[in-house]
Design a protein that fits this description.
Number of strands: 11
Strand order of the largest sheet: 1-7-6-5-4-2-3
């Protein structure tokens, strides 16, 4: 078991000038391989791959001791610690010791549960645990397989993305069957007429599912709280019906990725009931687990209209990945859409549940075992206490942010997520997030919520305390104070001061107390250290869907293409310098002993910036 404590580092590049100082000019600065590899060799950072493993697998066996040593020295430095108290990114990873032990036993058993006959215990336990789970969340009895008169049930999938895809494929099969009737026309003929609907705040997996299923997707705008606008949904469906299209799938979200907003399931359900071809799926990947709390079930009202519902115990129920629960109102509709039953998979136990018909893969892991361990070890009360602690800490952070007039909270805080930003333009907020992540002391991610760039602060650690929240807020304020010295605050809305009086947008905020403003910007050399919160190019970021802004969207501070061009320019001019002795991109060391790249200045650095 790994016990060594590692600093939480997320940055991917180090200061290139420091690297240049250590290298001889006889080396070529290849932007695509050598420089990056050498940087990582010299500075293995948490959150990056240190790129120094052997290119080939060993021919002979190696000792387990050597493997573990390499694990410590070469793998762990590239790990992002999702269970760290200062990890506030994405959503909780859901680990707990009962879950890990259950997963270890599942791996040791090694059964491949594609049918009841292949492992009866796996199939039976999954049925039992899914019914436990549904009852704990207070789901409608139609989703509980052992409820009187129920035709529904549930199964554990690998992820919420699988749940959405499986539900969409099932809805598509049902809609095509109704359109096709008794004709012999191929199913693909009906695909162009099918159309699905999702909120602009819905998860990007919805868009991916529609692409995979070859159907249209219409995006419905959200209101100021991030909830799908039901009036626009109603109008869009009516317009599409009039145009000869077939609305067949609507996704409502409880706990959106960007801001943890809750769609009005009841009103959406009433609209869907007016069109018989529509399948209503409710995606509750993160927040659906909160329905284990009676006080949160105000947001589950309307689930009686849903044809399917999913939530991830690996996000907020202390169960390690992978585990995503999907329930459907009519199991036979699901099975008929996905049923493939060759002779070698058939068996004589007709009453046994074959879960291969409930999802995409044939082979299935014994996931129910770890969830069974979690329910039995914590009990419903223990799980409720855990979630309530996250909610209380998020409310604490929200209160701290709202007390500081330089910041604002952009979402309604119902669970463990707070979306905040400085009352400035987006660029200072980009910089704030970059410096937070570069510090290695905390990790957060950005999102677009209600059209505004925000920083997502999500309570994730199982044993998080108020001290963790207070420490994080103190560090955030320190970074913000440095940035605000260099930027004129811009108010996008009329802020309210702690005294309750309003300030017009034309009135400037009071200057930041402390050191006087420093007229400098993050220089190109310095910015190399802040280049990424994620390792993607600007082109990749800009090409992402404008319709479904995923809360885990990478944000780039410096264009990596420009960075790579500088690398290449340095390499070319270094060659010329080596060959003819002319002045090239690699200059002589400066008075501090640092070698610089051409066009990368180190100006405007003073003691006030340290």
């Amino acid at each position: 078991m790994h016990t060594q404590t590692h600093t939480l580092r997320i940055d991917l590049l180090v200061d290139l000038s420091t690297h240049c100082q250590k290298q001889q000019t006889s080396h070529k600065y290849c932007p695509n391989l050598w420089v990056i590899k050498e940087i990582f060799k010299a500075h293995p950072l948490i959150g990056c791959w240190p790129v120094y493993l052997s290119a080939d697998a060993p021919q002979s066996p190696e000792s387990f001791k050597d493997v573990l040593e390499d694990f410590e020295q070469k793998i762990m430095p590239g790990v992002v610690h999702w269970n760290h108290p200062k990890f506030f990114a994405y959503f909780p990873s859901g680990n707990s010791f009962p879950s890990v032990l259950g997963d270890m036993l599942s791996s040791a058993i090694g059964s491949i549960g594609f049918s009841w006959a292949s492992c009866p215990a796996a199939a039976e336990l999954e049925t039992i645990v899914m019914n436990w789970y549904a009852k704990a969340l207070g789901l409608p009895k139609a989703f509980v397989s052992d409820a009187p008169g129920s035709t529904g049930g549930g199964a554990l999938q690998g992820s919420a993305s699988e749940c959405v895809l499986v539900s969409l494929i099932t809805a598509r099969a049902r809609a095509i069957s109704e359109l096709k009737g008794q004709t012999s026309v191929h199913d693909s003929v009906f695909l162009p007429s099918l159309i699905a609907y999702a909120s602009r705040e819905a998860h990007s997996s919805v868009e991916k599912a529609t692409k995979m299923a070859l159907v249209k997707l219409r995006i419905i705008d959200a209101d100021e709280h991030g909830r799908m606008r039901v009036d626009l949904l109603r109008q869009a469906i009516q317009n599409d019906v009039n145009a000869g299209l077939t609305p067949f799938f609507v996704v409502a979200t409880v706990g959106t990725t960007g801001g943890c907003a809750f769609d009005d399931i009841t009103e959406i359900g009433k609209v869907c009931r007016q069109v018989s071809s529509i399948w209503l799926h409710v995606d509750g990947a993160y927040a659906g687990n909160s329905f284990i709390l009676p006080e949160m079930r105000v947001f589950s009202a309307g689930l009686e209209y849903a044809d399917s519902f999913n939530t991830n115990p690996n996000k907020l129920l202390l169960t390690n990945f992978d585990a995503s629960a999907l329930w459907v109102r009519d199991v036979m509709t699901l099975k008929s859409a996905l049923n493939v039953n060759p002779l070698y998979l058939r068996h004589e136990h007709l009453n046994g549940v074959d879960y291969r018909h409930y999802g995409i893969p044939l082979s299935r892991r014994f996931r129910a075992l770890k969830l069974w361990f979690v329910f039995r070890t914590y009990g419903i009360k223990g799980l409720q206490e855990y979630i309530r602690n996250h909610m209380a800490l998020a409310k604490k952070f929200e209160m701290l942010v709202r007390k500081d007039e330089r910041f604002e909270v952009r979402n309604d805080v119902h669970l463990g997520l707070v979306c905040f930003r400085m009352r400035t333009g987006d660029e200072p907020n980009h910089m704030l997030l970059a410096q937070i992540n570069h510090s290695g002391k905390m990790h957060m991610t950005p999102a677009k919520f209600n059209g505004r760039y925000v920083i997502r602060f999500c309570v994730t650690y199982e044993h998080a305390t108020e001290k963790d929240i207070l420490d994080a807020w103190s560090q955030i304020k320190c970074f913000a104070e440095e940035i605000l010295r260099d930027h004129q605050l811009e108010s996008s809305s009329v802020p309210t001061t702690p005294e309750g009086t309003e300030r017009t947008s034309s009135e400037p905020m009071a200057p930041v107390a402390g050191k006087p403003p420093i007229k400098k910007k993050l220089t190109r050399t310095k910015s190399l250290r802040f280049s990424f919160t994620r390792s993607i190019s600007r082109e990749q970021y800009q090409s992402q869907s404008e319709h479904l802004m995923d809360g885990c969207t990478p944000i780039l501070v410096v264009d990596p293409k420009t960075l790579q061009e500088n690398f290449q320019q340095a390499a070319d001019e270094n060659d010329r310098n080596t060959n003819n002795g002319s002045n090239g991109a690699i200059s002589s060391p400066n008075k501090n002993g640092c070698t610089k790249l051409k066009n990368i200045s180190d100006v405007d650095t003073d003691e006030g910036s340290n």
